[in-house]
TrEMBL record:
Molecular functions per Gene Ontology: alcohol dehydrogenase (NAD+) activity
E.C. number: 1.1.1.1
Keywords, alphabetical: Oxidoreductase
Keyword S-adenosyl-L-methionine among UniProt keywords: no
Any one Pfam family match given in the protein's UniProt record, by short name: ADH_zinc_N
Highest taxon of the lineage: Bacteria
Protein name: Alcohol dehydrogenase
Highest classification ranks of the organism: Bacteria, Bacillati, Actinomycetota, Actinomycetes, Kineosporiales
Gene3D superfamilies attached to this UniProt entry: Medium-chain alcohol dehydrogenases, catalytic domain, NAD(P)-binding Rossmann-like Domain
Organism encoding this protein: uncultured Quadrisphaera sp
Amino acid sequence: MEQWLLPAGVTDAEGLVLREVPVPEPGPGEVRITVRAVSINARDALILAGPFGRAGDRDLVPLSDVAGEIDAVGEGVTQWAVGDRVTDLHFAGWDDGPAPDDRGGVGLGADGDDGVLAEQVVLRADRVTRMPANLSFAEASALPVAGVTAWNAVMGRLPVGPGDTVVVIGSGGVALFALQIATAAGARVVAMGRREEQGERLLAMGATDFVNGTTVPGWAAELAGRCGGAAKVVNTIGMRAVGACLPALAGGGEVAVVGLVEHGSATLDGDALLGRELVVRGVSVGSHRMHRDLVALVEREHLRPVIDRTFPFSKAPEAFRAQAGGGLFGKLVIEVA
Ligand SMILES: NC(=O)c1ccc[n+]([C@@H]2O[C@H](COP(=O)([O-])OP(=O)(O)OC[C@H]3O[C@@H](n4cnc5c(N)ncnc54)[C@H](OP(=O)(O)O)[C@@H]3O)[C@@H](O)[C@H]2O)c1
């Protein structure tokens, strides 16, 4: 079978290597998956550039998010059968409840955990979950990171509902899932971005307002003025943007911090935070329980993840370049078979 490898020291998509390797055999407690689709995330561009997610001189099979069919089960596996359609779970060690200190690494395709950019992969039987019955493999491959992260941001800890407003930022995988999940929960969605055509497409998807953050520096206050104050901002920029997000919130509202672009320390307005009892919460993808809840919602509401573009397996490096290039509207997916 064929597999892509990110050799140690390589930090450019040109350096990815397609190689022939033996078909892996599932051991006790493992399943083998015929890979149908793999989605790429912003994290994967960070891992390619390193040093985040790169373990010194170790070669790495990249990417974490897989959808496919189980084609073999190892000894002792009773919960899965050949033909089951599954995706991976991002964390090996987080079933339910708050995030444990040790979630079992930072996901597949990072550090010491080989990823899924291959024709077949072997995973622990408890590292996979049923994919939504109504989705294609390409659509389902968008769930493990982008979908579950958006679910956690919108419905975790302080879930939104009818009468609430949610602010989404940009049009990446997480933002568009957040828009769909918040809308399904009965909330209103307003958006900030930096391109007018992006705004038109966000409005067409159901956002009721769009503000261009590059031309309206006080975008958060502007959105609050239009919607009466939001219950939630899904901050897909990063910690350093938290202060800029606070004016969007109504009293008691939450900034769910997702983004890794502007990572680092935030300078916050203490009067606003304390006086209006605002909440700042970090989001770390999510648990198996959140993943299952998302699958149920996708099936119940017939949600279809938004795919910007697909790439054939042989052109995987182009997907990495597209991810790093920005300007996305939804997910980038590599179709494998
Ligand atoms: N904490 C977690 O567990 C977790 C999980 C998933 C993702 N993430 C992080 O969350 C972020 C979003 O992930 P994603 O997969 O949705 O990324 P993505 O598909 O690459 O999309 C990023 C989107 O954010 C927009 N954007 C970035 N900075 C912006 C800014 N300053 N103002 C307005 N728009 C901005 C981009 O717009 P342009 O097209 O204009 O560049 C793009 O639409 C990434 O930083 C990712 O690493 C974190």
